Amino acid sequence: MITDSQALYEWKQRAMTQPAGRTVLDLEADSMHRHHEKLCLIQYADEQGVAIIDPLAIEDLRHFSLWMESTDIWMHGADYDMNLLQNAFGTLPRLILDTQIAARLLGFRQFGLAALVEHFFGIALSKKNQKADWGKRPMSDDMKEYAQGDVKYMLGMADILVERLQKVGRYDWFIESCELQMQKGRERHLAAGTDPWRIKGCGNLEPRGLAALRELWNWRNDEAALWDRPAFMVCSNDELIRWSYALQEFRSVFPPHHFHTHRAARFRKAVERFHLLDEDDYPRPPKKVRHETDPEFETRLEYWQKRRNAVAETLDLEPCIIATRSQLESIASDYNKGMQHLMNWQRRLLEH
Q1: Strands, E assignment, 202-333
Q2: Closest Cα to residue 147, out of 55, 52, 83?
């Protein structure tokens, strides 16, 4: 456990001697327990073993961030962790080598960390502390053991995955996929403050329904901040969408019976604010790409789906790895423009 600046400096000296691509990181946050999540634990591993850095105990973490941004690091399923790193340090590693991406490019359908560790090493990782409150101190021995397990086997697993990727000629695919994941992670971080209330399921709402959703989302966010709990503990996204459709259709909505008096009153106030909005203040739906004016579009889309599926079957990969439906729709709509949205290796496979 690294809990002070001197120990962190000594750890950095060790980490700086490790070659690029020979270190592992994992992170733990308190997003399941707090409204504003924070980075609570950094798990690190290299050939010498595991170190656990406590960012809640160390005021100045520059030794960590300066090392991190200068090297290539292995992580697993790094999408969420990239957001944590950017929020905490404003930067990312030079390159994140993601074992989840590697596994999927090799055809694994069970690509969670626990499933892969069990597959390669026959070891069942404990799931006991998956939803633990990592912001609590002191940490239990069980939590420390769980934290170590997330990085303990990663380098050995990475070596196996790289060897297999190189053997089947997919290592270049892997590097390009990791680079794209980091690019998208940076773009998501920059766009994070743009209309956060546009949640999954709102795509078919009309301006009136979107206005309701925005007002209710802001109400829920305020409630979560007041309570210092994650927003989903106030109510689910599905409930927000359901209430928004009801208000769009001029139906009444009521606070759930389990809301305490003050929360229920604030819910009603939010609905009142929505009803007082002028239509000019309603948000607009995003423009949708429509293909129905092109009678050949569906035919072309079906062609590209069959082509992609045939390639995926030959390579024993999930079809969406070769190209997602939205990417195929772009290709069917405008071949040259759509192909630009693919990685080089995806484009080569579909054009072959």
Answers
A1: none
A2: 52
Residue 352's pLDDT band, with cuts at 50, 70 and 90, is: confident
Token pair 């604030």: residue: 266
- Asked whether the beta carbons of 85 and 68 are under 8 A apart, the reply is yes
Residues 2, 57: Cα–Cα separation, whole Å: 9
232 is written with which tokens? 């989903």
Q: 189 burial class (0-12, 13-18, 19+ CB within 10 angstroms)?
A: middle
> What is the pLDDT, as a whole number, of residue 207?
96
Structure tokens at 341: 């949205």
Per-residue tokens: 190: 């920059």
Q: CB within 8 A of 247, min separation 6: which ones?
A: 208, 209, 212, 253, 271, 274
Helices and strands (H and E) in the chain: how many: 16, 5
DSSP 67-113: HHTTSEEEESSTHHHHHHHHHHHS---SEEEEHHHHHHHTT-S--SH
| Cα three-residue angle 253-255-259, rounded to 5 degrees | 175
**C-beta of residue 125 within 8 angstroms of C-beta of residue 24:** no
pLDDT digits (tens, 9 = 90+) for 201-226: 999 999 999 999 999 999 999 999 99
Give CA angle at 304 (300, 305), nearest 5°.
Answer: 115
Q: How many CB atoms lie within 10 A of CB 257?
A: 6
Cα torsion 182, 188, 192, 195 to 10°: value is 180
Q: How many Å apart are CA 89 and CA 7, to the nearest integer?
A: 19
Residue 286 falls in which region: left (phi positive, over 0), alpha (psi -120 to 50) or beta: beta
The C-alpha angle 127, 131, 133, rounded to 5 degrees, equals 130
The tokens of 328 are what? 């195929």
Distance CA 15, CA 13 (A): 6
Helix (H) or strand (E) holding 31: none
Location of structure tokens 């949640």: 199
- What are the φ and ψ backbone dihedral angles of 225, each rounded to 5 degrees? -65, -40
| pTM, full prediction | 0.89
Region 1-22: what's the mean pLDDT? 96
Tokens (6 digits) for 93: 């590693």
Token code pair at residue 277: 């909005």
